[in-house]
Amino acid sequence: MSRQSCLAVRGWDTGENCGVDCADGDCEHDWHYASARSTLGALERGRGIVAARLRDRPEDAGLVYECIGRDTRWNHFLDSREVYLARLVRELRLDLAPVVAQLRACGPLPPLSEPFDPDSDADMFDPPAGVLAVLALGGDEQARETLRDYVRSGARWTDALTIIARWWPVAWWDDLWRQAAARAGTVEATEFWPAEQPWRRWHGRDRRLDAAFDASVRERPVAAVAPRGNLAAYSEARLLNFLLDVSTDSGTLNLTLGTARHQGRQLQELLNLAERLGPPGLTGMFSVLLELGPQMAAILHIRTTETGRLPLRTFPDVSAGRKIAMLSDALERLDRDKDGDWCGYDLLTEQLAQTLAGTPPTAHRDAKDRLVRRLIHLTACSPHTYERASYLRSLILMDPEGAAEHLPIFLLDCEADVRLLAVRHAALTDDSRRRLVELRDDPVEHSHIKAAATERLQTP
């Protein structure tokens, strides 16, 4: 596909093609994202272009507080904002006082059994805690001491410890077990996840902690073996156990299904569990079942007839032309029926890009142009940023040289996988080399991205 036809589309960096969104007044939600065309909307979506823009527009720096003031991740389990927002706070030299005040103002997390209250502060804790944890990792002593003190006296101290353990070296938090033990009896047992850090490391340290861990496992057995945020290394057998366990909470269930979906796990046993696990409308279930191939056709035909939904994948034993038509139709149906759901575009667009890339350069020209426009739209507009790397991979597949020219700005993106793609594939201009040096030398960047930046900078 030529560069002109593939990437000469308005909106690659500006979000101009986002169409009608919540900010245009076409929604009935309690809260909605700002227009992707606006500075605030781009910040909410964690886009690199606005991070670069704010360096030259300090008068808009206060918008960063708005994105810390409420968690703008579309999926709290998968999307990332911590490093992105922490860098903005650091580079714009924003006062930490409002961030600390917000952290302190948050009350206890309501029980999962209670309906979500849009006016509560449930979505206001993770952003300041995550930003402070990352800033501390970069050497900010105020941020570090704020979080350590919060463990001693803050309302959501168990969540704070989980965030701290995720970002900091063990030596920075291991001594906090004493404060945790002293407060263990003041919270619900379900707040503990014994398979996660720091609780896993602290097992056996204190009888009060052990009693809390035991109570947590009695109320929710899966907590003994399922770290919520790290299921990628688990075997198919263990993933299936989580699906079968009646105590598996919805968050872990969605993570389990998402792990299977994004890693291509076959999980053949799901054929026998399909009816027991409920309708495929459950997050991730539809696409996981579709990975099993034609043997699921009968079940899926019945389900799609009943629900009016199309599969998120098509079977491989069809011609390229037929597959392109089916995937294009599925994307259009997803547009019409998504009702605010941004999940699933990555799988469809990946399949379509792979199919189109395997056709002659002059074939299916309209379909290729439409897909590129859609990928650019999703990259700029979707708040489900976990899928952004997939959209960029598809763009790279269809036009490596053209995509490379647009990738340098994604070195500032909120998602680590996106930054890694940009590190490996961005055109090496003076500007991109400068940003690669920044990533290589930034103490808050992930080690594998720093290593990739080091390697790329050695390229002539």
Q: How would you characterize this protein structure?
A:
- This protein has 460 residues and is an all-alpha fold.
- Among the domains are: 39-173, no CATH class; 320-458.
- The chain has 26 helices and no strands.
- The protein has helices at 3-7, 39-44, 48-55, 63-69, 82-91, 97-105, 126-137, 141-153, 157-167, 170-173, 177-183, 199-202, 207-219, 236-244, 250-262, 270-277, 285-290, 297-307, 320-337, 345-357, 365-381, 388-398, 400-406, 416-425, 430-441, 447-457.
- Helix 7 runs parallel beside helix 9 (157-167), helix 14 packs antiparallel against helix 15 and helix 19 runs antiparallel to helix 20.
- The radius of gyration is 23 Å and the shape is globular.
Brief characterization of the structure:
This protein is mainly alpha-helical and 460 residues long.
**Number of helical segments with 4 or more residues:** 26
- The poorly predicted ranges are 1-17, 19-24, 265-269, 274-314
Radius of gyration: 23 Å
The helix content, as a percent range, equals 55-70%
Could you outline the blueprint of secondary structure elements for this entry?
Blueprint: H1 3-7, H2 39-44, H3 48-55, H4 63-69, H5 82-91, H6 97-105, H7 126-137, H8 141-153, H9 157-167, H10 170-173, H11 177-183, H12 199-202, H13 207-219, H14 236-244, H15 250-262, H16 270-277, H17 285-290, H18 297-307, H19 320-337, H20 345-357, H21 365-381, H22 388-398, H23 400-406, H24 416-425, H25 430-441, H26 447-457
Helix pairs in contact: 5-7, 6-7, 7-8, 7-9, 8-9, 14-15, 19-20, 20-21, 20-22, 21-22, 22-23, 22-24, 24-26, 25-26
